Amino acid sequence: MARLLPKGTVPRVYIFCTLIQAIAFIIAESYALYLIKMSHQATLKSQWQVPDIQSAVSASVTTYVVYSALFILAQCYIIFLCGEALATQNTIQVIVVVLFYFVCLANSVTRYISMFVWPSLAAHMFTRDNNMFLLQVTVVTMYCIALLALVVLSYKLKKDVGWSVFKRLGADISLHRAFAWHQSLVMILKMDIYFIGSYLIQMTALILKADDIETWLQITVFIPFCIVVIVGAFYALAGERRRLMIVIATCLFLSIGYFIFKIARVCDSSILGKPGDPYADSRPFFMITIVVCMLLVIATGAISIMCIHNFGSGLMEAIAYDKLRMKHRKMYATDKTASDESEQLMDEQGLSPRDRFALD
User: Fold this and answer.
1) Mean pLDDT of 269-281
2) Is the pTM of this model over 0.85?
């Protein structure tokens, strides 16, 4: 069990707090799903027997079920991100987890507002549910406390871990910068996976219909396009394939037009507040998701260009050398740091000065 825990007090407190927070949020969202089900059943048994109203209520219930499920999925993904950040000592990923929590906080505040401040006709079924009101206030408060705790712990982790990571790469400042951009792109691609996946789930579960041509365009074009671009970006980055990364960056920048179109579609005045509005309950959540996805796409494209500029700088060789050195340390159970390690892991004959990395 001790081998599974990270070394150091701060990393252990960090992963412990992340797990406790995730468990608390998963329990809260599970209870929210139960209350949604109870509210739906009570509403169907009340005087709301008009078919159109019942249909709107069912659509509203589906909306809040989907978003509660996405909240649970987000917590599971955050656990993965935090664990991997500690395992790889990726300080950039630690910082991005804080931003992830901020987006979750924004969504939880949006849900509270859509239920109790400006509810749709169908969402009025929650306004009389005191348990749901207390739960939503509690969830928002929990996210505020969790976000504050993560900010403090992330700051301490950055101070404790950040320097040791870059120290392993030697004294080459340009190599440090290339490594930072490399880590940033890997991290932003992981965020793309969740938020674009979340967007696709929302579109598929809440908006698209079998007789709508947009449904089939989504299935046959947009989903495969997202998979190919994200997988291609990882592949191009791992092998420093410059031409492929240029194609990926171009596709990312071109896709910004799609998200602008979706924003215009969601805010279309011809359906806003009208009967049959497909975004009646999901509009604020959709807007947050679409804007976040668009910002991530822009950031991914921009960081890809910076990584293209750094291709061929010796970073891949440095990372491979560092992995070999870490493997050597594990094999011989040595706790030496990067600065005092004297074992020769690679034959330095034939290595260029760039490939030595000042690790010996």
Assistant:
1) 75
2) no
